[in-house]
Design goal:
This is Kinase-like protein. GO terms for molecular function: ATP binding; protein serine/threonine kinase activity. The protein is mainly alpha-helical and about 700 residues long. The protein has four domains: about 45-200, I/LWEQ domain, CATH 1.20.1410; about 240-315, Phosphorylase Kinase, domain 1 (2-Layer Sandwich), CATH 3.30.200; about 340-525, Transferase(Phosphotransferase), domain 1 (Orthogonal Bundle); about 535-685, Tetratricopeptide repeat domain (Serine Threonine Protein Phosphatase 5, Tetratricopeptide repeat). Helix content is about 55%, strand content about 5%. A hairpin with a 2-residue loop joins strand 4 and strand 5 (about 310-315).
């Protein structure tokens, strides 16, 4: 069996062993949370996706309190997190007992995603508190500076989650950071004195104490590029673009995967540099390159080749465009206001960089799976000052076109403002403007004469706040001079969004165009668009039960939410070819991402992947340094597989590393103390004393 096969075989067994441990550690009963919910009454369908994560948070809070009560060391540091978890528990319980008045939150995918991320942070807090409360069993916690760094990171993550969940005001009022710092410093000083006493007799004594603790634990318990002249768009290697799990595409735009992200590949014709259209192409690509800075504009990754065709690679928008979305699904007003504001952000940015889009309408706004708008279709865009674009079929654009442009006057940013006003009307009523006027040529005369769409009320129709109608009316003024700029429009929309957020429990706070009309209009009945997120432990369980599809959906979603262990599993599925096409290169990239985020199994996987090309590895200093670096990181995270690999490497002088039997035995001994099977076999074979400080060899 060659080195690569040995690595894969060993890691497969290690993963299975780790999974068994994970399942044991995560197999908690959610009694406390269920008691809370039983007090609430029947959980509505809209509330169900949130239940598993609320249960995880509440039970973790109780577990952390119990760990604190049983702590041997660092009790004050543990108390810092106990108090924070009591705050989180208070907020979550209050949220669940008043879910009706918080119903808007439970209709937001972003709120569920934020809750999932917070549940992962709570897990990390629980693990940290458990480890630090039993300090003598964890070698990495003998470093006071590292403890402080971990504390600061967890506190920052907690604060960011409170902000994402819109609980930061309550949390900040209840958290006394000055008092927290006093508790932390007190324990760190006490710990430093404790460590100094141990280290007075050199490190071997401290390590020996640790070995005793670990042994006891084992006994008790048997992760041309000059083609476009001066412009150089990012070139993407076609090998890095792969097929997605589901091959759904939007017309000619193909859905692919790039660096573990869904992307859209749009056909692109490379023109000869002697073509009169060549410079037009250069301008377009230059603009695309400039616009990447704005998050409200679809991200352009670069140029590549897919199936023999040159393509432009953009972020993938799962919900297609806004027109397609509103044609099939009702939008609540909270979503409409946020979408309108964010589109205005994007257009304001375009105006700032001197770019005119020329075709502002809902069809040219893409939506992510979180209903985040991204401006797209820059076929007609130009920098301000450039010659305006000739439009092949202007009649199709008449419903959104400014009257002065219909008359043949130059296109300015005030034309863009007018089009945005029409887009807002389209978004409000979820239909194309002037759709009853035929032929479309008649729209030109209608608009030029000063007529506009109407804000009407009919029983069952979607209603619109008066403040929103005023913004629209300002934007579609006949005289361009009277139209506000995007900054003014943005301020108005931002205020409207904030007013909605602060008064959403009382819709009457908004005056609509009809006093008879409920603010939510026909959306008064609650329709949840939130997609449930499979709990991570359930995904691991599905993997063990060989339900690869379910496991993949779980790992992919949690990886998108920045869970390092999920990123590791996503890489593992690419490595093994489960559900997705096998892709070792992408797997290794994902392992590195997870490794850099602290996942120990990923650190081991990535380190071993560096040895796949042994001939190159033996002479590549950078790879050899990374190999040691990532295995050492995993060792510091208490990973027994990493200990075995480092020990085996040093003991046998493998991979052209200098042989050091004594150093190798120390690592192998540590792995054996953690019950790593190959290490246990090794110490048995060579009759090595697990608690001896120096090797007999």
């Amino acid at each position: 069996m060659d080195q690569k096969q040995q690595n894969e075989s060993m890691n497969q067994k290690q993963d299975e062993k780790q999974d068994e441990n994970d399942e044991h550690n995560n197999n908690e009963k959610f009694d406390t949370a269920k008691t809370v919910f039983n007090g609430i009454g029947t959980i509505t369908e809209i509330f169900k996706p949130f239940v598993p994560y609320i249960e995880i948070i509440l039970n973790a809070a109780n577990a952390i309190i119990k760990i604190y009560e049983d702590a041997k060391y660092n009790k004050n540091i543990c108390l810092v997190f106990v108090e924070r978890m009591r705050i989180a528990k208070f907020i979550i319980e209050r949220l669940t007992t008043s879910k009706e008045s918080n119903i808007e939150k439970f209709q937001e995918q972003s709120f569920l995603d934020s809750l999932v991320k917070f549940s992962n942070i709570v897990r990390s807090i629980k693990k940290f508190v458990l480890d630090i409360s039993q300090m003598n069993q964890r070698k990495r916690f003998f470093n006071a500076a590292e403890i402080r760094e971990n504390i600061d990171k967890l506190r920052q993550d907690f604060n960011e989650s409170m902000n994402d969940l819109q609980f930061s005001i309550i949390a900040n009022q209840m958290i006394d950071k000055i008092e927290e710092n006093k508790k932390i410093e007190k324990d760190l000083n006490t710990m430093q004195q404790y460590l100094e006493k141990i280290l007075d007799c050199v490190e071997t004594t401290a390590e020996h104490v640790q070995k005793i603790a670990l042994a006891n634990e084992v006994l008790n318990n048997d992760s041309k590029s000059n083609i476009w002249n001066t412009f150089k768009a990012p070139q993407i290697d076609p090998k890095e673009i792969t097929d997605p799990r589901s091959g759904a595409s939007h017309g000619k735009v193909k859905k692919k995967v790039y660096l573990a992200m869904d992307v859209a590949c749009k056909p692109f014709e490379i023109l000869n540099n002697e073509s009169p259209q060549f410079h037009k192409q250069q301008g377009r690509l230059t603009i695309l390159n400039e616009l990447q800075r704005c998050r409200y504009i679809i991200k352009f990754h670069g140029i590549s080749n897919v199936d023999g065709q040159t393509v432009l690679v953009y972020d993938w928008a799962e919900k297609r465009n806004l027109k397609e979305y509103y044609s099939t699904k009702p939008l609540i007003w909270k979503s409409k206001l946020q979408i309108a504001r964010d589109i205005c952000h994007g257009l304001n940015f375009l105006c700032y960089v001197g770019v005119l889009h020329h075709d502002v309408r809902c069809e040219n706004i893409l939506l992510t799976d979180r209903l985040e708008p991204k401006i797209t279709n820059f076929e007609l865009c130009r920098k301000t000052g450039q010659e305006t674009t000739y439009i092949d079929n202007p009649i199709e654009m008449f419903p959104w076109m400014a009257p002065e442009k219909m008359k043949g006057e130059p296109y300015t940013h005030k034309c863009e403002v007018f089009s945005f006003g029409m887009l807002l009307w389209e978004l409000a009523y979820q239909k194309v403007p002037y759709e009853k006027i035929h032929p479309k040529q008649s729209i030109r005369n209608y608009v030029i004469e000063g007529d506009r769409e109407v804000f009407e009320y009919k029983p069952g129709a979607l209603c619109i706040p008066k403040a929103f109608t005023q913004i629209i009316a300002d934007a579609w003024q006949g005289n361009p001079i009277n139209r506000p700029n995007f900054q003014v429009l943005l301020e108005g929309l931002d205020k409207l969004c904030k007013k909605y957020d602060s008064t959403h429990a009382n819709d009457s706070a908004f005056e609509t165009v009809s006093e008879e009309c409920n603010y939510l209009g026909s959306e008064g009945s609650i329709n949840s668009t939130v997609r449930p997120v499979i709990p991570f432990e359930e995904g691991v369980r599905a993997h063990k039960e060989h339900n690869r599809q379910k496991a993949w959906e779980c790992f992919r979603k949690h990886a998108d939410l920045d869970n390092p262990t999920a990123i590791y599993w996503k890489g593992y599925y690419y490595l093994e070819g489960y559900v997705v096409e096998k892709n070792q290169e992408l797997a290794n990239k994902l392992f590195k991402i997870a490794a850099d985020k602290g996942d120990a199994r990923a650190q081991v996987r990535y380190a071993l992947s560096l040895t796949n090309d042994l001939a190159d590895f033996r002479v590549n200093k950078e790879k050899r340094d990374e190999f040691i670096k990532y295995l050492t990181m995993a060792v510091n995270s208490d990973d027994s597989a990493a200990m075995w690999h480092l020990g085996d490497t040093y003991y046998n002088g493998k991979l052209n590393f200098e042989k050091d039997k004594a150093k190798g035995i120390e690592y192998i001994r540590d792995a054996a103390l953690r019950n790593f099977s190959r290490a246990v076999e090794f110490v048995k074979k060579f009759n090595i004393d697990l608690l001896q400080n120096e090797s007999n060899n």
